[in-house]
Amino acid sequence: MRVSFVVGLLSGTLCLGGASRALAQDTEEAETPAERMEEADQKARELQEPAPEAEELELTSPTTTEAEVEWEDTEEPTEEEGEEARETFGDRFKRGDLFGYFDVQGRFFPQSAASPVPGVPAPNDYWFNGSLAWEPGFFMNITDNMNFELILFGRVDQHDRNRTHGDIREGFFELFFDEWTFGFGVHKVFWGVTESRHLVDIINQTDLVEDFDTDIKLGQAMVTTSYTNDKAGAFSLYVMSWARPLVFPSPRGRPSLPIPVDNDLRVYQSRLRQGQIDTAFRWSHAMGGFDWGLSYFFGTARDPQLFAVTDAAGNPVAFQPVYELIHQGGLDVQYTIEGWLWKVETIVRGGQGPTFGAVTGGFEYTFFQAHGSIVDVGVILEYNYDGRDNNTFILFNNDFFTGIRLSLSDVGSTEFLVGSFIDTKDGSVFIAAEAARRFGDNWKILLEGRGFIPQAGNILEVFQNDAQIQVDIEYHY
Amino acid sequence: MKPSVAPFVLAAILVPTLALAGPAEDKGLEIAKEADRRDTGFANTTADMVMILRNKRGQESKRELEIRTLEVDGDGDKSMTVFHTPRDVRGTALLTYSHGVKPDEQWLYLPALRRVKRIASNNKSGPFMGSEFAYEDLSSQEVEKYKYKYIKDDEIKGIDCFLIERYPVDKDSGYTKQQVWLDKDEYRVRKIDYYDRKGELLKTLTPSKYGKFLGKYWRAHKMKMVNHQTGKSTELTWSNYKFKTGLRDGDFTRTRLTQVL
Question: pTM for this structure?
Answer without folding.
Answer: 0.85
